[in-house]
Design a protein that fits this description.
The protein is an alpha+beta fold and 403 residues long. Helices cover 32% and strands 22% of the residues. It contains 11 helices and 20 strands. The strands form 6 sheets. Strands 1-14-7-2-3-4-15 form a 7-stranded mixed sheet, with helices on both faces.
Amino acid sequence: MSETTNSAPTRSELRSQQRKRKVIISAIVAAVLLVGAVGGSYLYVQWRFNAIPKITVNNEVAQISGEPFNILEIGSDSRVGLSGAVAAQAGAVSGQRSDVVKIMHIDPKKNSISVLSIPRDTLISIIDNQALHGEFNRINVNYGDGVSAVANAITANFGIPINHVIEVSFGGLINSVVAIGGVYLDFPFPSRDSYSGLHITASGCQLVTGAQALAVARSRHFEYFQNNQWLYDGTSDYGRIYRQNNFIKAMINRAKKIYNPLKLNSLLSSIPAGVTLDSKFTLNNLVALAVKFHKFDASAMTSYTLPVAGTVNENLGDVLIVKQPDAQALLQKIFGNTLITPTNPPPNSLFVSTPPPVVTTTTTTTIIPPKHKKHSSSTSTTTTTIDPTQVMPYFDPIPCSPK
């Protein structure tokens, strides 16, 4: 029987095999970075994740795998971690307040993300520490009593179960934005806010990072330069909510494109500085989110603001009353059958805690196109199902991609 021998591979064949091995190794590394969501080996990521401060939140509802869940996002005005010019611009305050209250509703089955913002001056029924705050007060007063008090108040007033909590300070926002290399926002006009320190000198799509990123997210005295004059956005907190929602979308667009291990490591290293998670938020939760939503288009994220109406109270001053039945219709639209019966609904205009109305049909909103000239009362209007809280003012920055 003859013996078959294989000839040694040529030099070109060896180079080809080496290139293939490099491609395979690169693909494996990319897969690990993608599935791990934040880079490196699982043990390394776990070590970094464990460094993020955690807080125990009472009465959290356990997250069920594959089912919709809610993350309470609290923006703290704490100056911890700020220094130099940024700290000076932010100003010195005692203690900390929650000027941002958002509930992110994530539905893995529908591959959807919705965000509900609750204005800081919204009047609610106080659950914790009534002796200090009274029976009714603004939603942000409970933050001084701890994150659990805010979560309890939201569930008791609106029937929204809270599964997780994320708390972000000024420093946490800056650190996160810097770590991902900034965010891209398209400013239709040069913009400024002397209170937050916003100073955008040119229009167009541009990279925003560091102190300017914080200034965009904080801006509630927004001005824009149009027709050779500075114009003031008088929407205050509403305008800030619009800009924050667009800012979140810009961060999602930027963060999901990060594959560079050095940037991922920088992001992980920055997270502990100014970001706090609830103690039940695990690394597996984070990885599952990354795997499920790594291709999520941020423009598909729907954002809403709780319908409210202004009123004046002799003790509290200018406050906002939850507007019914609009509010309940919106809550049902976002949270569906995950809503529970509120135990302590917010007060009405008579300062009486009133159960939410039963909403059985889709609420429509009547809108008169703003650019039309003023007509007589006999002119017909256009009825649309577009939620006005989703309509961004034309002068606000929006996410963009650099050319």
